[in-house]
Each structure stands twice: as structure tokens, then as C-alpha cells.
Write a structure and sequence with these properties.
The complex is a heterodimer. Chain A has 12 helices and 16 strands. Chain A is α/β, with parallel strands linked by helices. Chain A is globular. Chain B has a single domain, classed as Thiamin diphosphate (ThDP)-binding fold, Pyr/PP domains (Rossmann fold), CATH 3.40.50. The longest helix of chain B is centred in the last third of the chain and has 22 residues. The relative contact order of chain B is 0.13. Classes of the chains: A alpha/beta, B alpha/beta.
Amino acid sequence: MNTTNKQVRLGLNGDEAVAYAAYHADVDVISAYPITPQTIIVERLSEFVYNGELDAEFIAVESEHSALSAAVGASLAGARTFTATASQGLALMYEILYIASSLRTSIVMALGNRAFSAPINIHCSHDDAYAARDAGWIQFFAENVQEAYDLTLIAFKVSEDKKVLFPSIVNLDGFILTHSVEPLNIFEDKQVIKEFLPDREAVNKIDPSSPITYGPLALPDYYMEIKKQQAEAFKSTSIRIKEIFGEYEEFSGRSYSPLKKLYVDDADIVFVVLGSTAGTMRTMVKRWRENGEKVGVLSLTLYRPFPSREVAEVLKDVDTVVVMDRSYSFGSPGGQLYMDVAAALNKYGKYNRLVNAIYGLGGRDFTPEMAEDMLNASKDPSIREIWVGVRG
Amino acid sequence: MSRIRRLNEIPRKELFTSGHSLCAGCGIPPMVKMALKAIEGDKVVVNATCCLEVATTLYPHTSWLVPWVHNAFENAAATASGIESAMKVLLRKRDGKKYKIIVFGGDGGTFDIGLQSLSGALERGHNFLYVCYDNEAYMNTGIQRSGGTPLGAATTTSPAGRVIPGKPENKKNLMDIVIAHRVSYAATINPAYPTDMWNKFAKASDLLDKNEGPIFFHYYSPCPVGWRMDTALSIEAARLAVQTRLWPVYEVDHGKIIINIKVNKPKPIEEYLKIQGRFRHLLKPENRGVVERLKKYIDNNWNRLLKLAELDSIY
């Protein structure tokens, strides 16, 4: 189906693109609190609501904890529900992240990835995304502004799907994507989207004619069975996610899949990366290939559920896998993505040489020179952990 | 909803069923049963983490014949905000249904950890009724002091020690904090005065129909276990709390304060203190100073309330 006539090309920053996606999804309830670098999202959505363009309730809560708490209530009550946060805000929501997932809500959250304090810093790290990794939220990573828009629409469809019913996070790198204007295609208006994303049909919603007890007490005699069921349900979401990627491609003309790979098949060294740095690495890998280096890059659009089997399959014949983490897990065997990749490879019987590259913390630029240094270091058999572009 | 003059006018059909594990003599169930009967029409309950929550929903059982939502400890008011907002927008946009929202939280979940969430929701003006059932300590975790614990009370974190005889601070005035948000209607309710309690719930029901929420009730909830008191004395303690002027029964109706239970000849506070183990140490001669402080607190509080009640509106 050719739908290009339904789209317009314009320049937006990542936050505005996400706001447009939530607007085009015709959200019912927005519950949010301002925090850099996410704030533009809720500012734009407020304008849509206050100018009468979007019929939604905007709950301007007094904290991120209440933002997610109210979102849980709104989602259980059947509303298409959106929130956005970053860094410290995500940390303040932490308690409710697990509840939002375990009550099987369909909340969509945009996360403008930002480093955790201290020292306080407003720029990009993936600390916040990683902090939410175990909480039972589906997580997507956008590489550019177009993806931030598309993945937000996809996230609503995924989270509200009756075979999914888990909340989603759409990650976009703080400032690098949230505040950078890029050209993208967006749909003309929200009516166009209804074909892909009809009004939410909530199951098991709050309804006085059919009372449900949400969030009871379950002790050792039941808790573990409930968690096993949740684990199985969460794992199974990857099937629907892939199908919905396909449906979106048919609808929009843009292709999505859990993994994106470039020159991986015959590579000796493959870099695994999340977020906007995937684009940088793709440029670098093309440049290195011209010089005869057998290198490739693997980026993940779907971070949770982690596509373990696919990652292991893609990397099975690679000598050296360099996993790039924009965060640090103190005292762990490696960064958070490193541990995921290592576990996935181990689970499927591959024992590649793994190198962990820590880069870009707190918004430190990741330059081509740094990428060169990282490539050179990864060839040194004695090096297993690289801090890229750090002084001293 | 119609007002009552006698208890036998209360309908018998229960929406809060037996089988729960709240203690003998607990003040919570009679209030909850009454709330669910007096608040007319379809309703949804939001419950903070507390005694009421754990004792009524032990999986796979539930005592609730209405939709009931427990999110966490400190966020019941925020959760209710979300439900109310969803209800409003779905009524406009799709096939939404209208219902009333009742929130129950304990003193810990309201005076302390949930105060921010409550304040935010009151300021934003969501249409719900919030009932804080105040048993004056963290009873669910084993009787620790809260901002609602009265002066001198012994709890497991403010014990009647050899040097410090129980909680050194006075109780936080939660009603004052709520009234500072200029809510349409706030009231204290007490199980020893059930017709007053019913009629206040009935009034709240009418106000919710008119979208005049948020409404706030502060309920005196006896706890024989936490107060180390005979289970048969719950209602007696509740009555004495009022008759000693320690716990005034009043309402703030659009800014007008009305003292609903007049106490012209207050009973000595010692009558209230002596039936509860949490206060027994205060009756020792060396702790007379604490009792004097308590008496002063009671007098100041009562006299201030009388003065405020003379005004047409405190708003």
C-alpha cells in the first residue's frame, strides 16, 4: 500500500516528533511532570490540548511519582495514556514501574535519555533506560527523529494489543535527539492514523458493572506463579512486536525490525550499540570497510524483551564483539548491554571474544577520532574494557 | 442521598463483604461499609497500601463488590486523579461510564508518605472523596509512630522510654492542611457518632454528583491492637475522644466551619488515657508535664475552632 500521500515532510526535533506522535495517536490522558530534556514533549502536548486540537485530559502532576501513578489509574480505567520523563524522573517513578507492568497497563512513556546524578547532568547517558530494564516494560530505542515518531505510534499499538498488555518505553537520546531538528515524514492528521491505530479497546478495565480487584495482596502461596505467568507473557510479546513492525511498514512504508545490522555477516569485529550512536557507527564502519577493515555494526531497536536468540545468531561467527555501553554498572562484570549480549551468546552456545566500550557518558561527544581509538583498542587482545574519549 | 436520623434506616445490602481479616474491634469496617452504602450509584474504590488493603484482598479472595484499585502506599490520590481524568475524557470521547471515586488511606499513607500526592490532587481539583482513616500510627507494619500519632503515645518507634515518655510531638493538623486547599467540603467523622457520619457521606455523595470534589474526610479509627485496649472499648474510646474535646467532630462546608458535636462539659482527658495501654505511662506522676501539654493542646485547638466557627467563612 502506498501511503506517502498521507504524509508530510517537515523538520522537527525529537521531542516535538514524539509529541506529534502522541497527538496523532489521539491520546486520552497525558500525565507528566517537566524534566529536561523531555519537557518540550509535554509543552507541545499542552498546546494541543489547550488549543482544542487534542481532546485529552492533561494531568499536570506534582511529581514524576504521581505522573506514573496517575497514568496507572488512567490506563486501568481504559484511557489511551501517555507520559514522558528522563533520568531523575524515571528514578522517582521506579517504584511504580513494576506496578504498571504487573497490573498489565498499556501506558506509553517517552524517555529522553539522560545521565543520573551525581554530579547532576542534563545530557545523554542510558542510565535511565537500563534502570528500567528489569521492570517488565517493552523498550524501544530510536536512532533518529523519524524513529522517535514512528516508534511512539508503534508503542501504543503494541502495548494495547490484547496479546501484549504491557507498558512501553520509547528511548530517545537526550539533546542528541530530543533537541536536534531533523527532517522526517509525519502523517497528515490523526484521522489517517486510525487505520493503523484505532481507538483503544481496553480489556479488563475498571467498570462498576463488572467489578475487578486490581493490585491485591499475594503471599508466598501464589506470588511465584503470578510472576511466572508474567514472565511467559512478557517473553511472548516479541511475536506481536515483530508482526506490528510489519503492519507499520505496510502502513507507512518504513521498515522496522528488532535488530539493524550492517556488514555483520563476514565481519571480524562487530560493534553492538543502542540509540543515536548507531548512525555514527554506521558511517564509521562504511569508512573502515573502504580501508579493508572487516567490521560491522549491530544496533537494537528493540531492547526489551531482549532479542537474545537473534543477537546470538547474528554474532555467531564474529571473532570480536565490542559492546558499547552509554552507562556504567558499578561492580558488575561489564556494562548493562555487555551483560545482556554476553548472556545471550552464552545461552546459545557461542563464546566470542567480548570487549566492553564505555562511551558518551553525560553527553560526552562521540567523535570519529574516538571511534578510531575504540577500533584500535579492540584489536589489542589484552584489552577487555575501553573508556572511550576519557581523560586521564 | 437521603439523610437519616436512626441507624435502622441504613440499607442492609453490603458492598464490602465478610471474610476479611481486619482485627476484632477495628474501626475501619463500619466506616467502609457505611461509605459504600451512603455514596449512591456506581463507584470505584482506590486504596493506599494499609491495613484495609492487605486485610481485604488476600489473593485469591476479595471483600470488594465494587471495582477496587491498589497501586502503592503514597500515591492513592494520584491514582484516583488518573482514574477520574480517564472517566471524564472517555465520557466525552467514547462510551465511558460515570462513577464516583472513593479513596481510602491510613494516617501513614495520608499524613506522611502520601501528603504530596494528596496535596497535588486537591490542588488540581479532581472530583473524588478521600477518606483518611486515622488509627494514629503505622499499624500495618507494627505500630510505629506517624505524623498522626498524638503527643505522649507509646509506639514501637516512640516507646515509653526511661528518658523520653512516648511521642514528644503533637499530632499534625491534617484538616488544616486540607482546608488550605480550599476544598468544597471537609469533615471529621467518628464511629461513636454514626448518624453524623452517614449524613456526611450522604452529603459527599450529593457534592460528587455536582462535580464539587475533591472532598476530604478525616475518620477516627480505633485500633485495639495498636492502642493496647480491650476490643470491646473501641466505640467507648471514640466517644471519649470527642467528649474530652481531644477530637472535635466538625465540618467545613465551602469555608463555613460547623462543630457538629457540641461538648459543653468536657470529660477529663485522663478518662480517655487510662483505658489505652499506649497512654498508661502518662498517668505516672513524673509524666504529669506531658498530660499538661496535652490539655493545653486540646484547649487551644478547641478554642480556636470555636472562634473560626463564628466566621461566615474561613475561605
